[in-house]
């Protein structure tokens, strides 16, 4: 941070929030000091006061997602008692009441794209994925949790590319149901000796 005394202690937070808003609506390529300052409603000099370079500003903005973002299916998954409850929690997080808005999905996608070039952002993404897998592991095996996590990101990507073509909840439900049922079937077969413990699967 540069020398000097900020006039507004909340200004740094506003700048970070504005950076995410710009990235979500216009992409990382539009995230300039000037554009972010305008979005935050602060003087241009404030952005350079708090963030000595643009890379640090962008990474810091993405870091706030790790601090304040919990998977939307977290609470429903914690209260799930049956496989059906788990499936419904996943459907809701994909295309129902707890699903992210398109602006949020686009922000996540921009974060993934930037993470391919920025080791710091890639580390944030790995942390978010780890958090998601840990929550899914409350009800699913490790392999199934990873498959579900990947499938959900795929569904979100579809929503981003087809904003006028809503996902069919029945199709989404059947896909998650198939993963959960496959995991249960493998576990039952393993218990009966039909599949060895070393066999790959969900």
TrEMBL record:
Residues 9-69 form the HTH tetR-type domain. PROSITE patterns: HTH_TETR_2. It comes from the Bacteria. Keywords: DNA-binding. This is TetR family transcriptional regulator. Coiled coil: none annotated. Residues 32-51 bind DNA. GO terms for molecular function: DNA-binding transcription factor activity; transcription cis-regulatory region binding. It comes from Cryobacterium zhongshanensis. The keyword Cell membrane does not apply. The keyword Protease does not apply.
